[in-house]
Amino acid sequence: MFEEFYGLAHTPFTRDIPTDQLYPSVMLEETLGRLEHAAKRQLFVVFTGDSGTGKTTAIRRFKDILDPARFLVMYLADSKLTPRHFYKGLLEQLGCEAKFYRGDAKRQLHREIELMRGVHSLQPVVILDEAHLLDKEMLEEVRFLLNFKMDSTSPMALILVGQSELRERLRLQAYAAIRQRIDLQCRLTHLDRAQTGEYVKRHLAYAGADRDIFSDGALDEVFRFSAGTPRLINKVCTHCLIYGAQNGNRIVDDHMVKRVIQGELM
Fold this sequence. Notes:
This protein is α/β, with parallel strands linked by helices. The chain folds into 2 domains: about 1-5 and about 190-265, Helicase, Ruva Protein, domain 3, CATH 1.10.8; about 25-190, Rossmann fold. About 50% of the residues lie in helices and about 10% in strands. It has 12 helices and 5 strands. It has helices at about 1-5, 25-40, 55-65, 85-95, 100-120, 135-145, 165-170, 175-180, 195-205, 215-225, 230-245, 255-265, and strands at about 45-50, 70-75, 125-130, 155-160, 185-190. It has a 5-stranded parallel β-sheet with strand order 2-3-4-1-5, with helices on both faces. Strand 3 (about 125-130), helix 6 (about 135-145) and strand 4 (about 155-160) form a beta-alpha-beta unit.
């Protein structure tokens, strides 16, 4: 549709953009460095950010940069996750049928992890997405899982990924025991105006644009609407490109962005 009009080879503002083509903000690069360190040292990490700031996208990039000969990544995203289904989900990813009772499944998981590390020299990396929706029982189970060999070693790298409310929740006294277990914390913040412009240009360059399509004024309006949230940047830019192609506008200016926001996004 608009890709042909603007001479693009790919769609620029989609969720499935190859992770090596992502805009490498300073915050993203720092976060990836911390997560990679956590994978190597088998640490417990809490990774938070506001909705739409790119946490899951960052996790995709993190998974892609890990050496599959050294690490096995297991990913779960379930707002209603219970301890039993937690063990079941991980064991299924290891090719095992989980025992019915929680305690048996937990011991089974520990055995499989020891086998993975000892025989196959693989380090497990467990990622729990949407962790801000997990109840206290599930978060406590995570703490118990990390008690391994009389608390002398960590059985895995464990990364809890969630919205900013997870960070606030873990500050409560009721979660003190879990908080004390955390080795690293990462946080994705919103992009500033300059980064927003660089983000848009990076995505357009990936798509094959050989010229600027958004004017500086347009980028000002994109930033004003999105507050530097990548998901909203993607949304408004896509709407603008569709509108521009339909109306024969080769350049997206500030008036067009305002028109699109008021007519389609408010």
